[in-house]
Backbone:
């Protein structure tokens, strides 16, 4: 239609919403849904103090700040000091209503239409939508698997040295969704070095960073980058995952790097944020009441994630591989190629045969094998029942009806 912009046109068939797929089957009694990543819908036991909390603002004086309320930014800085021992300054933090908005603002200040952003090959569908709306191109880098997920410096060297690439930023999600890959010390070191050399920004989406298996004594080489010295780095997260409160719209980005370029970034980001002023005073002030409960909330969820992943590992077999996750809310299962060749076919087969709902990994990108994704934040008793059903199938001899 001539009335609308080309960049606002999206193929409906390209990434259909998963909750609308196989609706008739999903409505059947006895269905076990292993796809939900919304903590408010998985029977999660929040601390009593959170359940009975009456969030209120004793006095409202609306004095908008483009970067967000200073007291809220100071609370976030204190939170990072406790968790990472990094000295984050409140003046280096900018608030927004959600991480999607932060992606949009950062794309606005870092790139012009036709420029490119480096993103993981397996990519959450939201990022392509936001990039298309700004006329940006996405160039994918691989996350390799050889018993564990990892990045290779040579991949980034090749992409960044390509002629006329016009790459303006590199997006890293840690923990990555859906692989669960977390940045390692050596990976962060070469990413910072490469971004500095090529004068591009490093964007680190760490919304799941409080839910790594490092807290359980595993993967001690995981790096949680907050402060960069050599390149412009922008780290963002929000209460949706930190506090498991997706209904409380408050996210933030932390800027670091060489002083001059960091300050220029914050000035531009503040200018863009001032045009929206999307964060409510209610959300800004509520963080002070929520922060004391975060350790309890996160410990409960990390325990659930670890328990469910251990349950999932028990169904691993020579024909059914469970790649090790390092963090985040989900895990991947690699299925064999029998008469069933694709992840979508496996997804439909399991839903029809044993009433277990999973997510096709092809939603995030192409893979050489059929992978399905399951949520690790499901209630453990429900998750266990779903895994028991999955374990009953003789996958190597599956024949289509």
Residues:
């Amino acid at each position: 239609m001539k009335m609308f912009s080309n960049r606002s046109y999206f193929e409906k068939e390209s990434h259909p919403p998963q909750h609308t797929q196989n609706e008739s089957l999903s409505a059947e009694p006895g269905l076990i849904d292993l796809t939900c990543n919304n903590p408010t819908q998985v029977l999660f036991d929040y601390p009593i103090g959170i359940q009975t909390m009456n969030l209120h603002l004793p006095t409202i004086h609306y004095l908008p700040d483009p970067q967000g309320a200073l007291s809220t930014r100071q609370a976030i800085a204190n939170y990072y000091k406790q968790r990472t021992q990094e000295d984050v300054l409140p003046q280096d933090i900018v608030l927004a209503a959600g991480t999607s908005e932060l992606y949009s603002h950062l794309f606005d200040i870092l790139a012009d239409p036709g420029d490119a952003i480096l993103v993981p090959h397996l990519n959450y569908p939201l990022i392509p939508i936001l990039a298309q709306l700004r006329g940006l191109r996405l160039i994918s880098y691989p996350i390799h698997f050889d018993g564990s997920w990892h990045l290779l410096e040579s991949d980034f060297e090749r992409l960044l040295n390509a002629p006329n690439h016009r790459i303006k930023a590199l997006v890293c999600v840690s923990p990555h969704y859906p692989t669960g890959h977390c940045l390692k010390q050596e990976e962060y070191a070469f990413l910072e070095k490469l971004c500095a050399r090529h004068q591009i920004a490093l964007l680190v989406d760490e919304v799941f960073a409080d839910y790594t298996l490092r807290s359980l004594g595993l993967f001690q080489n995981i790096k949680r980058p907050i402060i960069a010295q050599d390149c412009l780095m922008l780290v963002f997260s929000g209460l949706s995952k930190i506090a498991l409160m997706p209904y409380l719209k408050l996210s933030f980005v932390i800027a670091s790097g060489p002083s001059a370029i960091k300050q220029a970034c914050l000035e531009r980001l503040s200018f863009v944020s001032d045009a929206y002023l999307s964060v409510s005073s209610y959300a800004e002030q509520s963080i002070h009441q929520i922060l004391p409960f975060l350790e309890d909330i996160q410990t409960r969820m990390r325990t659930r994630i670890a328990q469910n992943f251990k349950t999932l590992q028990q169904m691993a077999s020579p024909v059914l591989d469970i790649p090790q996750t390092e963090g985040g809310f989900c895990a991947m299962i690699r299925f064999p190629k029998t008469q069933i060749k694709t992840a979508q076919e496996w997804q439909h087969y399991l839903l029809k045969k044993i009433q277990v709902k999973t997510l096709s990994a092809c939603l995030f990108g192409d893979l050489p094998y059929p992978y399905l994704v399951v949520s690790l934040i499901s209630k453990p008793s429900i998750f266990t029942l779903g895994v028991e059903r999955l374990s009953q199938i003789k996958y190597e001899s599956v024949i289509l009806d």
About this structure: Residues 294-313 form the longest helix (20 residues). The chain is about 35% helix and 15% strand.
